[in-house]
Design brief:
The protein is mainly β and 590 residues long. The chain folds into three domains: 35-278, no CATH class; 282-435, Aligned Prism (Vitelline Membrane Outer Layer Protein I, subunit A), CATH 2.100.10.30; 437-590, Vitelline Membrane Outer Layer Protein I, subunit A, CATH 2.100.10.30. Helix content is 13%, strand content 41%. Strands 4, 5, 7, 8 and 9 form a five-stranded antiparallel beta sheet that branches. Strands 22, 23, 24, 33 and 34 form a five-stranded antiparallel beta sheet that branches. β30 and β31 form a beta hairpin. α5 (151-161) packs antiparallel against α6. The protein is elongated and about 100 Å long. It starts with 34 loop residues before the first helix and ends with a strand. The relative contact order is 0.09. This is Jacalin-type lectin domain-containing protein. Residues 285-423, 438-589 form the Jacalin-type lectin domain. It comes from Rhizoctonia solani. InterPro entries: Jacalin-like_lectin_dom (IPR001229), Jacalin-like_lectin_dom_sf (IPR036404), MACPF_1_fungal (IPR054586).
Length: 590
């Protein structure tokens, strides 16, 4: 294997011309014919994946080049070390058992955190004791500034950053790190080892004079994990491991990795900056509002520390208001801080299946959060959780999936209730969210009535309105939409409103769509509506617009899609009871 000095890293101010470098030249191994095998066993300039909580995975692919002006520090040593290390998580215990130092285990950057979270592996907490008995025969130490990336790694990361969408960029960067590794070892010791790991409570039961060098004895401890490395033939497997043990170089194993460097830090500064800018787009906070200001009666809670995880279920405690929201995550962690008063009301649970994410939240609100409804990327709509008061707004983030919330909980005469909240959305989970191009009008109407949302009928389909059925007289009493699905079958929504008024029907021609709606409403209900199609046809005015209070007029036309074409009305949400109390119109691309 040819090792080179020099390279193209912009971080190295004094690169030298490429030349062969033999790191064993100053050692007794300088004439060895097995240097390639030794370098592979050392992990010299090779990447290591650390996204798995079970332990590190060293790759055979070289990710770095040596560009130092002087050779790296290489020492033949004859050290015998025993050490006990205490860890507090299962991940830490697994990596310490594999020979990593606490410093190396803690070398986690945001990209690594995200890759760890994608595996959805539990990381149990507790107290573990790892006892390591180490025979060191060789040490390699490299300075971070002496390394540059191999051109292929740099090229792959640059190509990832040039992908079209944020998700595609994230996906390609994650793939590059999976291929080339998350870190490169900087300080490695080689030799033989005997490693014992168990829970602290079990270790405390062992005799004070336990023989930590004796493989046969340690193997009788049923609760412990024992790993012995440094001999691959029968002759090398003695009962005990001792300082004078002879270990042929080809049987050396990594006994300790003291320091590592992130592979991203090998890259030129401008690429690192672009990676930082990309990572800053990973989360968004929608609705874009200020949570607060708050006083002594308020509490705020933030799930941002869970943002790398995937929600597996939502638990909501409601009465006429939203009182508590809890999230369970796929790695078994929980967010249970958004707790209000649960002295009255009921608990509801929404469980997500594999690959299902919350992508929209309907929020029914006045001064307090009255109700919530969750919609997933599968087009599944939760029941309406909460009370009947309030008007709707929609929280979503294009290309984002919900990973948590920021909440403001405040004291009310009915107990502690949700006053406001903000969704935390992640943008590296899916490339596109179904119906993310849809546009919602503002809500027209009153706080009265029961909430409805015809997304439960439409789901993620592109079905189009076939006809509109209306009941009306002095008021606009009811609205019902009929669709034609892709199989040619007619599908109807519920009738939103009462049974009063004369019955009318507005039938659309094939390929004809509603592109404009106007009407009137007061503080109780919708009093009149008119529908206009893209063919210029009008339904005429449904309802006489009668009101005993103050009337408000509205008129809304469909927005244009990304290609400049008019969108079409696909469904509605709003409130109804004995009449249609209010409406929000949802436009979708034709």
């Amino acid at each position: 294997m040819a090792l080179t000095i020099g390279g193209t890293d912009n971080n190295n101010l004094h690169p030298e011309p490429d030349c062969d470098l033999d790191i064993f030249a100053s050692t007794s191994l300088k004439n060895s014919s097995e240097k390639d095998i030794l370098l592979r066993n050392i992990g010299y300039l090779r990447g290591v994946r650390v996204d798995n909580n079970d332990g590190p995975q060293t790759l055979t692919r070289q990710v770095a080049k040596y560009a130092g002006q002087e050779p790296p520090l290489v020492q033949e040593i004859n050290d015998f070390v025993t050490e006990s290390i205490t860890t507090k998580t299962e991940r830490e215990a697994n990596y310490i058992h594999s020979g990593w130092s606490l410093d190396a285990v803690s070398a986690i950057n945001p990209w690594i955190s995200s890759r760890i979270a994608f595996n959805n592996q539990p990381n149990a907490e507790g107290t573990w004791i790892t006892r390591r008995t180490l025979i060191h025969r060789f040490r390699l130490r490299i300075s971070p500034g002496e390394l540059t990336p191999v051109p292929e790694f740099r090229t792959e990361v640059e190509a990832a950053l040039n992908r079209l969408t944020v998700f595609q960029q994230f996906e390609a960067v994650y793939q590059a790190l999976h291929k080339w590794g998350d870190v490169v070892p900087l300080e490695v010791e080689m030799g033989a080892s005997l490693v014992f790991t168990d829970f602290e409570t079990n270790v405390s039961q062992l005799p004070a004079t336990a023989s930590w060098f004796d493989t046969r004895y340690l193997a009788t401890i049923r609760t412990a994990r024992i790993t012995r490395q440094g001999a691959v033939d029968d002759e090398g497997w003695e009962d005990s491991i001792w300082p004078k043990k002879t270990i042929p170089p080809l049987q050396w194993h990594q006994t300790r990795i003291r320091k590592v460097i992130h592979t991203i830090r090998l890259l030129p500064v401008e690429i690192q900056d672009r990676l930082s800018q990309l990572y800053s787009q990973r989360l968004s906070y929608i609705p874009a509002l200020i949570i607060g200001p708050s006083d002594s009666s308020c509490q705020t809670h933030d799930d941002t520390h869970h943002a790398a995880n995937t929600i597996s279920s939502v638990t909501i405690y409601t009465s006429d208001f939203i009182r508590t929201v809890k999230f369970d995550y796929a790695d078994t962690s929980k967010s249970s801080k958004h707790e209000g008063s649960e002295s009255q009301g009921s608990e509801h649970n929404m469980v997500l299946i594999d690959g299902e994410y919350i992508t929209e939240i309907f929020i029914w609100k006045h001064d307090w959060i009255d109700g919530l409804q969750f919609i997933t990327n599968f087009g599944r709509c939760s029941p309406h959780f909460g009370g009947l008061w309030g008007v709707p707004t929609v929280a979503r983030s294009k290309g984002g999936v919900l990973v948590g919330i920021i909440s403001l909980i405040q004291q009310h005469s009915f107990g502690r209730l949700f006053r406001n909240f903000q969704g935390i959305w992640r943008h590296d989970a899916v490339d596109r969210v179904p119906k993310e191009e849809d546009v919602f009008s503002i809500y027209f109407g009153s706080h009265h009535g029961k909430p409805f949302n015809d997304r439960v009928v439409v789901r993620n389909s592109n079905m189009a309105i076939l006809k509109i059925n209306v009941g009306c007289g002095a008021y606009f009493d009811s609205l019902q939409l009929t669709y034609l699905d892709n199989s040619g079958r007619e599908v109807q929504t519920d009738r939103h409103g009462g049974a009063g008024g004369g019955k009318h029907e507005f039938v659309l021609e094939p390929g004809e769509h509603i592109t404009s709606v106007s009407g009137k409403y007061d503080d109780q209900h919708i009093t009149q509506m008119t529908f206009i199609t893209d063919q210029g046809r009008s339904s005429g005015s449904f309802g006489e617009g009668y009101s005993t209070g103050k009337l408000h007029s509205f008129s809304v036309s469909s927005p244009k899609d990304r290609d400049g074409k008019r969108m079409r009305l696909q469904y509605a949400c709003g409130k109804s009871d004995a009449s249609l109390n209010g409406i929000m119109l949802v436009w979708t691309p034709v």
